């Protein structure tokens, strides 16, 4: 496979990057790829993401942000140490080898569910315990459990007549007669595998899990077993077909390349309204491949992404082709786009992200902006800190702005005396960067925020590296500013 490197550029003849031969970079990519494989320690590698592409992107990122050849080598070795630490942790984990989720559409697995009812919520576990108990003694207990679960535990049992105990309800299936919307509402609070198990109790065709409006698929619920997780999620999406819509998809993955296709199907086929995707933060950032995932949707309202790499084309789709998008949260991610612009976005949160370019935020309807970095020091994985500038443009509707992040500087675009840029701003949180250049950034905010009521400064004490907050409640009389 031919490797194509991106990042850094050769620069001039005296640039240190031009002195590193391509075969040297190829060998380092190979070392990174081997370290990634050892960190995962897979029994079946078919569930892994394309490790070679991950290694190439990782090396290119380090090559691009390093300031010297020494810094480049240091960052490489630091990342290798981090991957070796993951590998050591994996050897200490005791992962179960049971697999009950190879094909969730098959009735053969119904009998296997009985051994797993301990994993369910208490009410569901009680219900299943009654179903799989001794057939000679289950009638009264099952009916009682069913009625109690459906009534929230407040049902009074019918008094026995004579020496014969009577069940609190007849032999009919009371749970299956509930309206589908009620059952779907109950399922929305369950993990996806519990939704599948519970659906088998209902006499419905097709099973209710195939039309559940909310899916919570978390690899933590599978003891971090990527093989079981991949098989379950694949069967789940295949069993839903193309007609059923999704209100919310929560997907927590760990080095599963197929996750990008599941996200793409949720947007394209199921018209999902809310996506919450997290790649395990111990692992490398998940690449949102624009060829596999299209965020172009008129239904998408909320997007939360954690530990991902977002390129310009993905940002363009979120900004220009999601006309209903109102909430966007990016955490522990790498942002490769120079601009976030949207005509519908109301809430924007950027937390602990690596910003590779100067970032222009142009969101006319934005009400709340949060841009912060809560990490203390440079961890092995996040060896590059945010140093780019943030440029704020057209935030006349913003009521709350939080900018404690250690960015290089914040710039303001298109500010005119007759139309204050922050005319609706009432709450402002800033970091110590606002005190630079003789308090010029702070003075600029105060000058262009006529409605500001609360100013909170997050300052750092150098001696003990602790932070304290200074809150200032501004007087109604703003003539002094």
From TrEMBL:
**Highest rank taxon of the organism:** Eukaryota
**What's one GO-annotated cellular component?**
nucleus
Main location as per UniProt: nucleus
Which species is the source of this protein?
Aegilops tauschii subsp. strangulata (Goatgrass)
| PANTHER family linked to this entry | F-BOX DOMAIN-CONTAINING PROTEIN, OS11G0201299 PROTEIN
Where does the record place the Mediator complex subunit 15 KIX domain?
Answer: 14-85
The name this protein carries in UniProt is Mediator complex subunit 15 KIX domain-containing protein
**Which keywords, in A-to-Z order, does the entry hold?**
Nucleus
Q: Does the keyword Nucleus apply?
A: yes
Looking up InterPro entries in the UniProt record yields:
F-box-like_dom_sf (IPR036047), F-box_SCFL_complex_component (IPR053197), LRR_dom_sf (IPR032675), MED15_KIX (IPR036546)
Where does the UniProt annotation locate this protein?
A: Nucleus
């Amino acid at each position: 496979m031919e490797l194509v490197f991106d990042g850094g550029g050769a620069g001039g003849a005296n640039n240190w990057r031009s002195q590193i031969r391509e075969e040297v970079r190829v060998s380092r990519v190979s070392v990174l790829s081997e370290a990634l494989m050892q960190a995962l320690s897979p029994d079946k590698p078919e569930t892994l993401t394309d490790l070679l592409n991950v290694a190439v992107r990782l090396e290119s990122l380090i090559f691009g942000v390093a300031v010297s050849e020494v810094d480049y080598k240091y960052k490489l070795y630091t990342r290798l140490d981090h991957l070796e630490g993951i590998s050591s942790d994996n050897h200490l984990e005791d992962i179960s080898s049971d697999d009950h989720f190879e094909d969730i559409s098959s009735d053969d697995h119904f009998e296997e569910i009985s051994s797993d009812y301990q994993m369910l919520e208490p009410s569901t576990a009680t219900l299943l315990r009654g179903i799989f108990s001794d057939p000679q003694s289950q009638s009264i207990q099952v009916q009682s459990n069913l009625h109690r679960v459906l009534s929230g535990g407040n049902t009074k049992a019918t008094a026995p007549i004579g020496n014969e105990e009577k069940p609190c309800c007849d032999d009919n299936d009371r749970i299956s007669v509930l309206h589908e919307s009620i059952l779907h509402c109950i399922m929305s609070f369950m993990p996806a595998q519990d939704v599948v198990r519970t659906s088998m109790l209902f006499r419905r065709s097709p099973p209710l899990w195939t039309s559940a409006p909310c899916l919570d698929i978390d690899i933590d619920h599978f003891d971090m077993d990527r093989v079981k997780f991949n098989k379950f999620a694949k069967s789940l999406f295949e069993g839903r077909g193309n007609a059923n819509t999704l209100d919310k998809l929560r997907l927590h993955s760990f080095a599963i390349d197929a996750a990008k296709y599941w996200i793409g199907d949720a947007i394209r086929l199921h018209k999902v309204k809310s996506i919450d995707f997290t790649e395990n933060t111990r692992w490398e950032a998940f690449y949102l491949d624009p060829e596999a995932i299209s965020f172009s949707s008129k239904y998408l309202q909320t997007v939360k992404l954690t530990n991902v790499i977002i390129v310009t084309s993905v940002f363009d789709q979120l900004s220009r082709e999601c006309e209903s998008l109102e909430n966007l949260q990016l955490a522990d991610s790498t942002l490769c786009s120079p601009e976030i612009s949207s005509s519908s976005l109301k809430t924007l949160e950027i937390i602990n992200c690596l910003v590779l370019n100067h970032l222009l935020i142009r969101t006319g309807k934005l009400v709340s902006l949060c841009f912060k970095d809560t990490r203390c020091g440079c961890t092995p994985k996040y060896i590059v800190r945010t140093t780019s500038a943030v440029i704020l443009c057209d935030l006349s509707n913003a009521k709350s702005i939080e900018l404690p992040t250690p960015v290089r500087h914040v710039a303001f675009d298109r500010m005119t005396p007759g139309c204050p840029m922050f005319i609706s701003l009432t709450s402002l949180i800033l970091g110590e960067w606002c005190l630079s250049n003789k308090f010029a950034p702070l003075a600029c905010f105060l000058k262009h925020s006529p409605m500001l009521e609360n100013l909170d400064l997050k300052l750092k004490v150098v001696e003990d590296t602790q932070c304290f907050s200074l809150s200032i409640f501004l007087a109604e009389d703003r003539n002094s500013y």
